[in-house]
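Quick question: what would this complex look like in 3D?
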Amino acid sequence: MFEITFRFENSEDTVVIAASPEETILDAARKANVAIDAPCSGNGSCGKCRVKLLSGEVSGLQTSHISDEEYAEGWRLSCCTKPLSDLSVLVPDIASAYRSRMKTADLSSGKEIEIFENLLSGVRAAGVELKNAFETVDLTLDAPTLDDTMPDNERLTRALAEKVGAEIELPFYPMRRLPSVLRENDFSIRVIGERKGETFLIYDITGRNDTRPLCGVGIDIGTTTVSAVLFDLKDGRLLAKASGGNGQIRYGADVINRIIEQGKNGGRKKLQDAIIKETLVPLIAALCRQAGVPATRIYRMAVASNTTMNHLLLGVDADPVRTEPYIPAFFHYESLKAADIGLPAHPNAAVRIAPNIGSYVGGDITAGAFAAMLWDRDELSLFIDLGTNGEIVFGNRDFLVSCACSAGPAFEGGDISCGMRATDGAIESVTIDETTMEPTLGIIGEAGQKPVGLCGSGIIDLIAELFRCGIINSKGIFVREGERVAHDRHGCGRYILATPNESATGREVALNEVDIVNFIRAKGAIYSAIDTLLSAMDMDESVLEAVYVAGGIGSGINMQNAVRIGMFPNVPLEMFHYIGNSSLAGAYAIALSEAADAKVSEVARNMTYMELSTHPGYMDAFVAACFLPHTDASRFA
Amino acid sequence: MFEITFRFENSEDTVVIAASPEETILDAARKANVAIDAPCSGNGSCGKCRVKLLSGEVSGLQTSHISDEEYAEGWRLSCCTKPLSDLSVLVPDIASAYRSRMKTADLSSGKEIEIFENLLSGVRAAGVELKNAFETVDLTLDAPTLDDTMPDNERLTRALAEKVGAEIELPFYPMRRLPSVLRENDFSIRVIGERKGETFLIYDITGRNDTRPLCGVGIDIGTTTVSAVLFDLKDGRLLAKASGGNGQIRYGADVINRIIEQGKNGGRKKLQDAIIKETLVPLIAALCRQAGVPATRIYRMAVASNTTMNHLLLGVDADPVRTEPYIPAFFHYESLKAADIGLPAHPNAAVRIAPNIGSYVGGDITAGAFAAMLWDRDELSLFIDLGTNGEIVFGNRDFLVSCACSAGPAFEGGDISCGMRATDGAIESVTIDETTMEPTLGIIGEAGQKPVGLCGSGIIDLIAELFRCGIINSKGIFVREGERVAHDRHGCGRYILATPNESATGREVALNEVDIVNFIRAKGAIYSAIDTLLSAMDMDESVLEAVYVAGGIGSGINMQNAVRIGMFPNVPLEMFHYIGNSSLAGAYAIALSEAADAKVSEVARNMTYMELSTHPGYMDAFVAACFLPHTDASRFA
């Protein structure tokens, strides 16, 4: 056994663990609970898990993801490298940038917020009341005397029952502090509770001077990215918004790898800890800090997520989701409380889970389709959610049919060597001068922000532009020479967006042929899913009247370019509507409103699920779509 | 600041803490969470908090509790001793013997078990059904197929609803393991649940081969002693019994000192931890070990305890109980679950709290009076619960009136220099030869057990015998000389029951004048409470038809001696019935039976509380009773 000492960029911490010569550095890191990104789950294909060898001897070959110069500096892929002696390795901060960086939104501006609020006006306009059963009740109780020795709880519940005309339920959490709160406030108090049928359920008892809002939280748990909003339960006013990476990413980029990991000994706990302790706890803490409220002020929550993600969140075995006959533990599960899974909130806060309708169409889609309002429209519409899983819903108020495809993490910047989430430093738009081949970049962040990597919308633009300018062919292979085009010693071409001097990190930002092929596969999965779904209904894209595109791919998605590369059907551009993170909007609506919650369940019950993987024709459609724009070029003429 | 190093008898552990010259060793021990018994809460009166100085210099005077020889050996009272240098002190194991020793009962024998079961036959005979709403239901579900993809939870709840004819509630705890349990058992399962009105509430889903019993637990939390039974919910069969000291003892021997301690910064948490983490968690673990079941198999619990103890258990501020107008936070509190306060049991297990009726008459008395069956008898009966608080209930099926007095811990061996609980090594009975003054001892434990100390019943016998033999006078002062009588240099007399050679510990076992005075005060409190309660009803002891004596004072209490010292009223001996721990029996009945639970609440609602402390005449009656047997000797003629 050797000792591996992990050191961390921008940190004084060290972690030491014993490792055998048969274990990779990534294996050892996982044992030691050291977070190294490995979207491909350690099979050497994504190139994300790089570490820098500071001392010691290792075995393992140089891969195409490491340049000669980098190799000389000590860079290695941790999944392909094993110790031959005691080691000291540096875990780069940048490697986990797209995973761990948390972004809190400025709610005073932002296109995404606007989109978000438009969605909700639509919901309201459709007659879904955006309200809940929470109330604050002010009470002045008689102070006890030697002749009036009624105990505190009876004193409270009798007066409250009379005022609200309901039976009172006083759970342990508010009971605990009752005598102190009554006496600190001279028996003049404010009760926070929720009406449930004939019962008024108490959550908190506080003073009259406590004017902090009653809060709700909506959460979208994506396979790669997690976003959440905190809002005032009274009127739905947004108080904070934040997003970050899903901490489970180091157990695999897609749901299949995560399910395999959770099936290992202790895996369910590890995956659950990764999403709750590592991801949601700091995310909700950021929301609360931003809004200036304690987490115990969160009284109602809703989570929209795919079937695998909500199983892993609950710590429920997800293996049956993956294996025939593909049975989730639940579609609807309505009894969850924050304390059950240790979410930072009032312990009795209900956690509503947007319902699943199948193994691969989950609550993110039912919530998203709800927010996209397909169920309230006459027009035949298509809803496309671009995430690690791509999901498609087609229909109108008369019918809804859905399917899912595995796109991989490419749309969120995973599986792409310089990919990243749509956060500061991400290149979100690209144009290329056809003559000089020089790029013009749109970068997220303040003026002067140098590029760190590429987010999904930037990749779409870049591939569309490379193809338009004839720099790559329909298979994604480089066919023009130039200053911006380079090849490594294996002959793999790449387009250089930023040289080491031009980038924020001192490392080149480029898109190579492997990345392009990965991305073509992702866009092909989406297009062929749409194609197959419409064919199954004996229709084609000519019937479409509207296309709603959702997902965290970046607010600036260029629809023309997306059509140009054959990702979306070739319909008039004005039919496309980017609706942002509709899953988050749906979660927000469910957390805010009993009526929305009920409506999402109704939409889910009326949605038909089509299993693509067993559908004849899908594989052919997929292969045909893995070209730029398509093997059948007439579709994009 | 100096460093104090605590070492422990029979342990390799050490604990080091910094302490100022102004702090006592006891203060430092409490800061360091080192358990040193201090029933008097550190005012130098009980003499229990002795430690042995191994090295270092200290300030503080020798007290009467430490002999010259012991002083020379390094023994000091930790509450009266402060550091003058770094110290090393030994914390003796024997000091905490009466607190921490846990005793598990052999259920195949034992007078106490017999008494316990007789009580329950009485309850059953009175028409109270000893059953609950727990059920096990065997189900065979259709295994899912590609054509039958209903998720697990719907599959379960539909089949179960049909079988039990009720709406199904599936909380998170059983939901969590659902997919695994279904598949491990080929969809042929056993459901454990409870009917609640129209609902069937699931607790566990398990395999058909799981034949372990569904368990309930009844707990009596006394100020000094805690006892519990674990039983089969199906038929009430006892599976295990255990008892131990209340870990809160180091924060004071009586409820007043505990309430003061819990009012300090962080005190509520400390007192709650002392009863839950230090006391109930190991006690329940012992029960489960004995019965061979995991704690999660406990589905229903009940606690009988005085008002202060149940407030401290819940972590609810008890200060209003102590200060005018003496208002508890609750009399009845019915919403508690095991998970709310971290009791080791199924997290959804209800924890029923026997109701309080006043600040100083709590659930131990309502549960005890229930078990003593006063509410079902025609005879005018007296119920006496001998504990740190003494409580009296008087009446019959037509009325019940109760009061409480503070007896201190003497009946349970506290406040007595060689006192201990009624466990192995306790002298539980004494006779003295009037001529030779030599004692004959009855000692708890196996044959040949040497004495460790005196439990309550032994103290009653000893004082009665010393008085009968003219060795002490009616004030408790030694008036005969002899080999067994000694005096310290302050002139304080004592009777030696065992010399260092004769004892189990190498230390003398004796009862001194201070102990006798403490005990006379305790018995005086009980007698005067009975006297005052009867007088207030315009009655006297001549109306009594039965006297039920309860408490952990020792099963062998000699009623004649108790009357002889003026502790109990002078009624014919055949009227006395020792009924053991009736509070525990009541808790057991509440945990086992919904009907018993309801009946205890009814008894509590019909019981009148008389506040003794403000009652004119009580103080005079108390002073008159602080003699052997009484200032009015005609009462005991």
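Answer marked as accepted. The CA atoms of residues 528 and 622 of chain B lie 5 Å apart.
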